[in-house]
Amino acid sequence: MVTIGDNIRKYRKKKNLTQKELGDIVGISNTYLSDMEIGRTNPSIKTLKRIAKGLEISYVDLLKDTEE
User: Fold this and answer.
1) Which residues of the chain carry a pLDDT beneath 50?
2) pTM above 0.85, yes or no
3) 51 exposure class (CB count in 10 Å sphere: 0-12, 13-18, 19+)
4) In whole angstroms, what is the distance from residue 34 CA to residue 39 CA?
């Protein structure tokens, strides 16, 4: 099963961004972003949309394959 964190990491790496760089773009700490990527915490819908905007993708892309 693919998680939201897996998808965030995948799209972040496709953009060649570090966690700190994406965190700065989105306005969240790299620690919080790291926690999301490893599944320690889940983002709110508002945060998920901000991350997607920072990655220049639809927030729906971050939810794909997470419902299985």
Assistant:
1) none
2) yes
3) buried
4) 9
